Amino acid sequence: MILRRLCVQHFRCFRSPVDLQGLGTGIHVIHAPNETGKSSLILAVARALFDRHSTKDREMNLLRPWQTKLSPRVKLEFETGGKRYRLEKAFLDDASSVLDEWTGSRFERLAESQEADALLRGFLVSSVPGNGVTKVGNWGLARLLWLNQSEERYDLPGLDTPLKARLLETVGVAALSNEEQSLLKAMEGAYRQFFTPKTGKLVTGSDLDREGARMRELREEAARLTQRLAEIEQLASESMDLGQKQLSLAEERRTYEQRLASLQERIAEEEKLEQQAALREKDVERQRKEWQALDQKQRELLALQQKVVQQEDLLARNEPALQEAQGLVRRAEDGAREARERHKAQQGEVELAEQRVERGRLLEDARASLAEQRKLDGLVKQGTRVETAVENARRKTAALKALPDAEVKRAEEVQRKLNQALDRLDAQGVEVSFTAESPQRIEWEAQGHTTPHKLTREEQKVFSGVRAGALRIKGVGEVRVRTAAEEIGKLEAEVEKHRKDLARRLHEHGVDDVVGLRAEWASQQVVLQELSKYEEARSQFLEDNKVESVEVLKEQQREQARKTGALSAQLNLSREELQTHPFPELKALTEELKARRQEVKARDKAREEVEGALRKAEQHLKVVTQGRSSAQAAAQALGLELKTQLNTLGLSLEGLGAEVERAEAELSRLENMVRGLRAQLPRLEARATVERKKLQDTLERIGDEEKKNQEKRIRAQALLEQAAADGLYSRLCEAEEKLALAEAAYQRLETRARAAESLRTMSQAWQDQVNQTFLAPIEQELHSRLAYIRGGGRLEQLLLDAEFSEARLQTAGGPWPLEGFSWGMREQTLFALRLALGELLAKKGPRPEPQLVVLDDALVNTDAARHQRALEVIESAGDTLQILILTAFPERYRTLRGVKEFDLRALAQASSPSS
Question: Among 141, 362, 512, 553, which is most exposed with the fewest C-beta within 10 angstroms?
Answer without folding.
Answer: 512
